[in-house]
Predict the structure.
Amino acid sequence: MDTHTKTLKVRVKNRHTAVLRRMAFECNQVWNEVNAVTDELGWIPIPEIGWMSGGGLSAFDLQKELKGIRARRGFIIGSATFQEIIAAHAKARRQFKKHKLRWRVSGGSKRSLGWVPFKIGAAKWDSGQVKFCGLKFGVFDSYGLKDYMFRSGSFSEDARGRWYFNVVVHYTATKSTSRTAIGIDLGLKDTATCSDGVRLERNERYREMEGKLAIAQRARNKTRVKAIHAKIKNRRADDNHKFSTRLVREHGAIFVGDVSSSKLAKTKMAKSVLDAGWFQLKTQLKYKAIARSVVFEEINEAYSTQTCSSCGVIPDSSPKGRAGLGVRHWICSCGEEHDRDINAALNILAAGGCSRLAGGIPVL
Ligand SMILES: [Zn+2]
């Protein structure tokens, strides 16, 4: 099993801005104290090594030096943040070969963007939120953070005053034990159809919400329009997540037709194509497959709808062109009855199987 490291960045909800600003203010004070100490001590010679900044003070010495500040000033940031600031300061001193760095400014036009770092163990995932310093922070969890072990990281602010939670995580690409392969046709009627007949149905709930959306748009109720849009988006993401997680759990290889949304968006099908959220589903399948060592491949899906998956010919009876869009079921000249989308998914699977076998990877 391979272990990898990556940094995940998620947006922190706005209600936490005030407390994060306060923490950042405290971090700036710690940074500046460290700066003052190392500046005062300057450079000292270390035999056989050379010169060392900050009087050669170790992180441990500095921690002792700063021990009292936390209690004296009633800081809410903990020792894991103190230690990380000291480490970051030392690293920057080495990098820039200076014993004094720039001050961190907490106000005015030269204000430093907020930064609250922490060492491993200080931030944890706790019932849907990030627990840090005894507080809980709501975040927009686009990664499924509960599946990761948090290491070190930081809270950081961008120029527009929005806060992010950045955390280093280890993850293991676990070898999938599943040996089955599946083809997926991304269609217009259903969002996705698998070669084994499983479908991600385009939800009736969307249509219901689309009705509400139309009413709100006619009433020019901007707030409501925005809210409904967000709701539809969330629901789709949720459906896509459930579907993609299930597929990577159940299969060892996934082949998806390479329909390009941009290509189809130019046609009259634009709305239903964009609504289907293909791109999102494909992206989710891809990264989840990689994390589980599941084979993932996009397959040229030309003729996958028209070709009979049993005999391999393109009979006159198969659905063709825009006129064929409404054809859901058809019978091949070989006598095989087809559901349009399952047949397409079977062809995609077959194409994927061939290219895989040629590559010599014994997944199938
Ligand atoms: Zn046939």
About this structure: Residues 356-364 have pLDDT under 50 and may be disordered. The pocket of zinc ion is lined by residues 308, 310-311, 313, 332, 334, 336 (CB under 6 Å).
